Amino acid sequence: MKIAVKNLNNETVREIELPESVFAYPYKEHLIHTAVQAYRAGLRAGTHKTKVRSEVAGAGRKLWKQKGTGRARIGSIRSPLWRKGGTVHGPVPHSYQKSLSAGEKRNALRSALSRKLAENAVVVLESLELENHHTAGLARQLAGLGVAGKALVVDRHDNEMLRLAARNNPRLKTVDALAVNVYDVIDRRHLVLSTQALVRLVEVLGK
After folding, report:
1. How far is C-alpha 185 from the chain's CA centre?
2. How far are the Cα atoms of 55, 56, 77, 81, 121 from residue 84, in angstroms, in the given order?
């Protein structure tokens, strides 16, 4: 299968061949769902914590004698039954990370990319080298390419001009070819890649 390579003026420069092993991979919703769950779980800090009775402030002495007062027996002011006492079975720090094999990650990304191509939402550019870092200028060029709404723009990580032009536009996210993940692909309506980024992405996913 082939796809047109354009420049930033929406002129077709040439065509390149897309490997079917990557861009014709069957759509597997369950695999994509699992990959998205794993990605979002990895973003959670897992630092939530409550104090148990041994950690809250307060003396450990017995407040009154066990018998003879007519009051309920109590061992410590730090008891969970009392205000400002410790918490029982509260949350503790832990990782929410879900494990996916390398093969599952690659196949999920192949599936997401294939779906994007089937939806005609993939734009390949000869180059993403910009003349300046103006946010409005980049937005106009992408609009001329038919890219409206949220878009994932993929190029090399050291393209500073592209990063500066996109950072103030909440609808755009720029990533390196090796940092493309399933969540970003399906979360955004369009996928814009430079030919250099496409080659690197195919090299990784074609293994």
Report:
1. 9
2. 11, 8, 9, 9, 56
State the helix-helix crossing angle for 29-43 and 102-118, rounded to 10 degrees.
120
Read off the pLDDT band of 207 (50, 70, 90): low
- Distance spanning both ends of the chain, measured CA to CA: 19
Q: Which two tokens stand for residue 145?
A: 């390419």
- What is the overall mean pLDDT for the chain? 92
Those residues whose C-beta lies under 8 Å from the C-beta of residue 117, and which sit 6 or more positions away, are: 3, 18, 23
Is the CA virtual torsion 20, 26, 30, 36 positive or negative? positive
- The closest of 118, 105, 102 to 20, measured between CA atoms, is 118
Two structure tokens written together for 79: 């008891």
**What's the CA gap between 57 and 172, in Å, rounded?**
48
Give the bridge partners for 123, in sequence order.
192
Does residue 178 surpass a pLDDT of 80?
Answer: yes
Q: Is 126 exposed, middle or buried (0-12, 13-18, 19+ CB in 10 A)?
A: middle
